[in-house]
């Protein structure tokens, strides 16, 4: 609502004895214009008012990125699933130049539903998940020595295995949060925070040029105290940003080998995993059935 230069000139030139009467809004603006560099001071105070919440938002965002990287690196179930996909792919490609692969890009996970089994319905993802359900169910069943073997042992193993696979999405909650973030927006927010300090410095310089006034001195004192705190906080935020982005780069290289191609979209790795988890959740009802996975093969 700050007036334009032309509006500001007209308001300053206005005389009280003018036949044209000002409305309430114009009277207010005219009064505000009598305050030295009023709108710059308002901007400075708005920056101060929003500073704490902006800092808290950035801290949480960078911590989420760090946690997401840790989840991808340490989730046993996620790594188990990747291992199963790699082994299945190698079995399918025996005798070809793709039959002895040591790794694959995570983008491959999104293509698992495109590979159909002999029945035309079972996908490669379904087959891979069923294999994990079997192995994980057997592992947990063997570890549980308190329950004796029964006729329904296979069903019990399947149930245990399905619970493990179903827990994958909850293990990667920060990955899903990170997938919704935009690296450019985060960087822009950090820059805005930094540039806001420069604006306050400009206001303080203008303040020093004014004649000595008690209210201006109090304003300067308040601004200087805030600036010292804010500058230290911004340095910490910038350091936190650097660490978080470094970890994202490392995890991208860990899974993709080269992060150079991902520089335009540094958080894409989280988006791929999130989309895969969505596909996994959609197929969940079938994973527990076990009706057609015994005969279908990829």
What does the model show?
The chain has twelve helices and no strands. By secondary structure, it is an all-alpha fold. The chain has a domain at 76-171 and 280-287. Helix 5 (124-143) packs across helix 6 (153-166) and helix 8 crosses helix 11. Residues 291-298 have low confidence and may be disordered.
Helix and strand topology:
Blueprint lengths: L4 H9 L10 H10 L4 H37 L1 H17 L31 H20 L9 H14 L1 H4 L1 H7 L3 H27 L4 H43 L11 H15 L1 H4 L11
**Quaternary class:** single chain
Number of strands: 0
H/I helix tally: 12
Secondary-structure-based class equals: mainly alpha
Distance N to C terminus:
65 Å
Helix share, percent: 55-70%
Radius of gyration (CA) equals 31 Å
Written as H for each helix and E for each strand, in order along the chain, the element string is: HHHHHHHHHHHH
Please report which band the strand proportion falls in: under 5%, 5-15%, 15-25%, 25-35%, 35-45% or over 45%: under 5%
Task: Calculate the mean pLDDT score and round it.
Answer: 80
Shape: elongated
């Amino acid at each position: 609502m700050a007036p334009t230069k032309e509006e500001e000139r007209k308001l300053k030139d206005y005389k009280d004895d003018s036949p044209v009467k000002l409305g309430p809004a114009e009277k207010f603006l005219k009064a505000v214009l009598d305050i030295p560099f009023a709108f710059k001071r308002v901007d400075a105070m708005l920056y101060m008012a929003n500073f704490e919440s902006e800092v808290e938002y950035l801290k949480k965002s960078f911590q989420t990125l760090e946690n997401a990287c840790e989840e991808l690196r340490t989730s046993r179930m996620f790594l188990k699933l990747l291992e199963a996909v790699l082994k299945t792919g190698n079995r399918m490609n025996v005798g070809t130049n793709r039959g002895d692969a040591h790794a694959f890009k995570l983008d491959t996970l999104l293509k698992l539903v495109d590979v159909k089994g002999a029945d035309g319905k079972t996908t490669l993802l379904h087959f891979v998940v069923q294999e994990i359900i079997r192995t994980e169910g057997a592992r947990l069943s063997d570890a549980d020595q308190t329950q004796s073997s029964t006729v329904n042992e296979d069903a019990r193993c399947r149930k245990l295995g399905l619970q493990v696979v179903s827990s994958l999405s909850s293990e990667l909650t920060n990955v899903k949060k990170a997938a919704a973030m935009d690296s450019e927006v985060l960087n822009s927010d950090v820059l805005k925070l930094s540039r806001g300090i420069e604006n306050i410095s400009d206001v303080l310089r203008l303040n020093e040029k004014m004649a000595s006034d008690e209210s201006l001195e109090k304003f300067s004192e308040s601004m200087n105290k805030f600036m010292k705190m804010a500058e230290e906080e911004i340095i910490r935020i910038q350091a936190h940003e650097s660490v978080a982005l470094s970890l994202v780069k490392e995890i991208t290289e860990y899974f993709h080998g080269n992060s150079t191609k991902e520089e335009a979209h540094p958080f894409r790795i989280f988006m791929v995993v999130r989309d895969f988890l969505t596909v996994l959740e959609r197929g969940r009802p079938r994973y527990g059935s076990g009706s057609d996975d015994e005969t279908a093969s990829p």
